[in-house]
Write a structure and sequence with these properties.
The protein is mainly alpha-helical and 266 residues long. It is built from 13 helices and 5 strands. It folds into 2 domains: 16-134, no CATH class; 139-265, HAD superfamily/HAD-like (Rossmann fold, 3-Layer(aba) Sandwich). InterPro entries: HAD-like_sf, HAD_sf.
């Protein structure tokens, strides 16, 4: 089963389940939005797997999905032998400055790229919903744990809400109310947390925030200091060995592995 752009600029890897939906969608969006974008291919005509390896390697630096389109576009002009030094190391060290410079050079806006990224996903879903869902693979035990959780659950994500709701439906997760899903465009994660903490039904109760991006947790530890909120770093997500080490030393952030997360929900 091919998951990529059939007929132009290479196809995405059919092993998409191993490289991640966001990377595949970013390659597609970059090809659609920037007509001169091409990616190297393997002998079968699929986008070379090292392209996805590079995108996965820098994923911890990304805060919002559209940034993957910027990464893919930039990566398309870098040779394989130069990827580690000119791409991976640079992104992990100074992504914000690089992103702003690239977008200014290409004369594109955040809104342009958000729309392009969402459009690529919509096209993929329309053509092959099952492969899109599979590329968004859920971690073992999570679906059942969410469905059997007794406490109210919320999702705060930079993914557009419609995609998150579709995944919940496809994975049979029915224990999260639609109004409890806060996707891209509903405010920052900190602002959403403040809204949830201020709601009458949570008065006097402690909330738990599980997040795989250390910077977001650090911001929460400062912005929400003194509130009844426990902060956990999801160590199975997109973070590095260094961020795990730093989290272990933080007085208000606790590293959390997947088995423990699942057991706490049940």
């Amino acid at each position: 089963m091919r998951l990529g752009n059939r007929g132009h600029r290479g196809r995405a890897d059919p092993r998409g389940i191993f490289v991640g939906e966001s990377s595949i969608a970013a390659v597609r969006a970059a090809c659609d939005f920037f007509p001169d974008t091409t990616f190297p291919t393997d002998p079968d005509g699929n986008t070379a797997h090292w392209v996805y390896d590079a995108l996965r390697a820098v994923r911890p630096a990304i805060s919002t999905g559209y940034e993957n389109v910027v990464l893919a576009r930039w990566l398309s002009g870098i040779q394989k032998d130069d990827v580690q030094e000119k791409f991976v190391e640079s992104v992990l060290e100074d992504w914000e400055a690089i992103k702003e410079a690239l977008m200014a050079d290409w004369e594109v806006s955040k809104d342009d790229l958000v729309e392009a990224f969402g459009h690529a996903r919509d096209k993929w879903i329309e053509k092959d919903l099952d492969s899109w869902v599979n590329a968004n693979r859920i971690f073992p035990g999570v679906a059942d744990a969410l469905n059997f959780a007794s406490a109210p659950l919320y999702i705060i994500t930079t993914k557009q809400t419609r995609f998150c709701l579709l995944l919940l439906e496809r994975y049979g997760i029915k224990n999260i109310q639609k109004e409890n899903v806060f996707g891209y465009g509903t405010g920052s994660k900190i602002s959403v947390l403040k809204k949830i903490l201020a709601s009458p039904e949570h008065k006097g109760k402690k909330l738990v925030f599980v997040e795989d991006r250390y910077d977001t947790l650090e911001d929460a530890s400062l912005s929400l200091l003194g509130t009844p909120l426990d902060l956990y770093l999801a160590t199975w997500g997109y973070n590095t060995a260094e961020t795990k080490r730093v989290a272990e030393l933080h007085p208000y952030i606790t590293p959390l592995d997947l088995p423990t997360f699942v057991s706490k929900l049940q």
